């Protein structure tokens, strides 16, 4: 037995242990789950100890795996920082930037920003993971995340990115309004068919409206609950009920007349998203370049 396992296998073990999932780590690293499984098997054989407990539903580090991960993480970070130091001698940095962002940001906010950033820094690869749950970006192997202010951890540095003001808006198809009428107050929605969005992790937020100092939250029901905003918009355009969501989503069908704005004086504005990352002295060059670019385009 040898005690000098391949460094790449150690790095992949850390990725799987942080993600608690072969599939999650595989998506993050751009590899197949089977290749990660083989790397872990190879590492466990060389070390002569089981590092991960595997079931059909979960992957968790053993006590030995936790001890290894605890000692391995700062060592891998130092190695990446040492290699990253070479970037200061290049005209443009190279490397990989791993971002975790919510769906609305991935679809609406980031595309033009990422396009401009990659055009300026052709040596950088961006790995973008879109999900709507709030996670520990470092523990999951990401360099930074993008979230809205109410879900930011206090020990993170936050930089505004994208539009500084966004809105939730309400709409329905002309056919539905002709049949069922238009509400005069948000509470009237309790007597209407409403199409609800549910996040993939199961959360379903009430609809919140604001006019002046008055805030009204309602929890209406209807014929469709979906994590797909496209499905909700299609159903609303078909006259099945009201849809409530980001103006970036509902604005285009409203501009085409497929949806009609409703209760406009109750639409609520809120601050746009933030790029957030941990405070640390040795920041990866791709992340530093991205932060500089975001601040520059303002």
Going by helix content, strand content and strand pairing, the class is alpha/beta
Would you report the number of β strands?
Answer: 15
The CATH architecture of the largest domain: 3-Layer(aba) Sandwich
Radius of gyration: 23 Å
Instruction: Supply the number of structural domains.
Output: 3
Which blocks of ≥5 consecutive residues have pLDDT under 50? none
Q: What would CATH call the class of the largest domain? A: Alpha Beta
Q: In percent, how much strand structure appears in the residues?
A: 15-25%
Number of helices: 9
Query: Into which percent range does the helicity of residues fall?
Result: 25-40%
CATH topology of the largest domain: D-Maltodextrin-Binding Protein, domain 2
Name the shape in a single word. Answer: elongated
N/C terminus separation: 55 Å
Mean pLDDT: 88
SSE run = HHHEEHEHEEEEHEEEEHEHEEEH
Largest sheet: 6 strands, mixed
Descriptive account of the structure:
The chain is an alpha/beta fold and 298 residues long. The chain folds into three domains: 68 residues, Arc Repressor Mutant, subunit A (Orthogonal Bundle); 100 residues, Periplasmic binding protein-like II (D-Maltodextrin-Binding Protein, domain 2, 3-Layer(aba) Sandwich); 106 residues, D-Maltodextrin-Binding Protein, domain 2, CATH 3.40.190. The chain is built from nine helices and 15 strands. Strand 1 and strand 2 form a beta hairpin. Helix 1 packs across helix 2. The radius of gyration is 23 Å and the shape is elongated.
Please sum up the structure shown:
The protein is α/β, with parallel strands linked by helices and 298 residues long. It is built from nine helices and 15 strands. Helix 1 (7-19) packs across helix 3.
